[in-house]
Amino acid sequence: MAGSITFDEIETKEGFFKASAKPEKIDWLPDPPRQTRHTTLISVDDHLVEPPHMFEGRVEKRFADQAPRVQTEDDGRSEYWLWNGKKHHKVGLNAVVGKPLHQRTFDPARFDEMRRGAWDIHARVRDMDLNGVYASVCFPSSLPGFAGQRYQLDVPDRELARAVVRAANDWHHEEWAGTYPGRIIPLQLPWLLDPKEGAAEIRANAKRGFSAVTFPELPERLGLPSLHTGYWDPFMAACEETGTVICLHVGSSSTAPTTSSGAPSDTVGVLFFGWAMFAAIDWLYSKIPVRFPNIKICLSEGGIGWVAGLLDRLDHVARYQRIFGTWEGIAMTPREVMQRNFWFCTIDDLAGLEQRHHIGVDHLLLESDYPHQDGTWPDTQSIVWSQIGKFPAAEIERIAWRNASELFRHPVPAEIVANPDAF
User: What is the pTM (predicted TM-score) of this model?
Assistant: First the structure.
């Protein structure tokens, strides 16, 4: 597709990355010390790597032999997921924390070639403790895609796909979020093949504690119906009714923005946030947040540096809205709807944070992106504090944890609010 590159192309394009060969031996960096706690933190964008046992005992017996399972290549050099008749070698895609920069590659990996916190909840919570992150929203990795699309799209047996999606959500609820209550904010995969059935899943999962769903930021790029058709309205209605936050992670359409043919890989890294800006406008002008005024949309790993300028552009275009005729009979302006229904997340946006009042302090969130290359582990506390530590105390509290706590309905214990060193 013009203007975009698929993740498969990014990972396999010869010569696209300088660091391309997996090392024979990983020179693991020493464990970092426990970081100084400047403030309580909630990260609304981290990732988990699906563990080998994820589907064991969770898929009904008639599908047990067809469920995703980890296999090892004959040479023993790599492991892969066998799913839907295909090998998925991206076991540890971008699970690079703890490795020196020159050993971070996209080559096929084994579970012993990534930091254990990527896929083991006990090790993850320990790494959160080292990093000073109290609670975390954890998106899936490459096997399902960031929005669960690989579990269901192009899968011939619809019931098998449904069983796998449900098993993945069961595992997330029972093991990943359930082992350490309070530390993980439950995030479900959506059922994408029918919006009414997907709505039923949202309602059922809300009853057992899921407060968020990951959803393709640009579903049409996956061959799904456009946001502008009204097709997704039953799903959106269920999210609004249950207060389920719709998390639109950059790249959940399995693509990233690109420029010209032959452009180097740096351009993709720099522009990775771009789909968040495109998605914000697509969702806004679909009028989904107009039809569902209480819906909550969180743009994950999209950055915030572009938001202030986009809000100004919305005001500018609104001055000659009569030319377009698309925003008529609506009491609120596009800018007002965006500032009401959308939340924006930052990893490292110093200039964007300076524009926090222009954007809206109540709609800014933080993320650490563990265990990805863009992530700030194990230095999240110090990086965050260097960027927001000079703000008024009430604003620090809002950005660091309170906005996330309120958005995802995930309370932080009073003793941790009073003393961030208490966990």
Answer: 0.95
